[in-house]
Amino acid sequence: MTKHRKQGRKSEAQSVAETVDTRQVLMDLVIDAGLQVIERTLSESVRELCGERYGRRSREAPRRWGRQPGELVLGGRRIRVTRPRARQAGKELTIPAYAAFQAADPLHERALEQMLVGVSTRKYRRSLEEFAGLEDWGTSKSAVSRRFVAATAKQLEALQTKRLEGVEWTALMLDGLRFGPHLILVALGIDAGGNKHVLGLWEGATENAALCRALLADLIGRGFPAARHLLVVMDGAKALRKAVDEVFASHALVQRCQAHKQRNVVDLLPKHKQVQVRSAMARAYRADSHESALRQLHDLVRVLSKDHPGAAASLKEGLEETLTVKRLGLDGALERSLATTNPIENLHSVTRAIAGRVKRCPNGDTAMRWVSAAVLEAERGFKRLKGHRAMPKLVIALHDLDTEKKMTALRKAG
Fold first, then answer.
1. 173 bridge partner residues
2. Rounded to the nearest 5 degrees, what angle is found at the Cα of 248, between the Cα atoms of 243 and 254?
3. How many domains does the chain have?
4. How far apart are CA 44 and CA 378, in angstroms?
5. Which of 177, 255, 285, 299 has its CA 20 to 30 A from that of 156?
6. Which helix (H) or strand (E) is 362 found in, with range?
7. Does 147 share its domain with 190?
């Protein structure tokens, strides 16, 4: 029995070894084929530039000028190749195919992708396929780190300069994200089709009015509308609210996050009261009409005011703004989606999972680069807002408010 087991284990080990060997042989064949294609492409490019080898051409025409060592990217690393040369009138010529291969350098993108999926700079080389007999470099910790910095800096610049005009924006969600000692304010836009877009980031030590104004002013400077009615979904941060009022004035229809409001009220209650009050608030938020919800919440304020005045004051503060979506006539899944900052909170959860791998954050630039890489990675998986088929209701409601404001202004002017 023991002999048969040993033979079985031996055959399994041989099978694994043969599989590994076959895999390595296949990878070597792929790389060899790739190198042959590169060599043929370079030779064809030289032929098109200089004509057939040994062909009769004028002295002024481009000529072959031997070969020299060069480098290209293959399999996530730099490799050495022998590249052809050409000259004309004593000057070195660029081989079009070689220039094209170098211009399409995917190393920055490869390093960024590896970092985002959790591969550390130290382990980057281990994540690549091993190619026998191929001299390569550019996979060290420092090289990968430099590429990651370059790639994230490029991403951040693109995000911070992205133009925002030409889109019918209906809602704006604002929330802060902690990254070490830094606070990153994130703006998420919702268009008329219910699609979500990361609009921008801004870094500061605290969520103060100056930081919030800077972000909003930057959005407007890049084409975000400030003179049309817009639903602005946010938590109860006073600095953020003050900035929204200053920048958007009466055009901002503020929806205070119902989830934040529930937590703020319940945290001020004894445990035996928490479930009851949370359920009462949830019933009010699910009411069929704005008037019914408002009445239920005011009743709850009166009930709490005697024994728990702190919780009552918290509920009363900004109470009507927790019902803005109902006042606009929204209901169902769309109302629930826009009644809280959950869409941006989900973005934050993905960001924390990615950025949480950072062991050291020496400055705000590092924080901004990591957060921008994380939110853009999260944006790749965005789905449309739940209830997006009802978005025309919101669009019509906002347009009606714009029209009403214009008519009021005309009446005053007349």
1. 188, 233
2. 80
3. 3
4. 42
5. 255
6. none
7. no
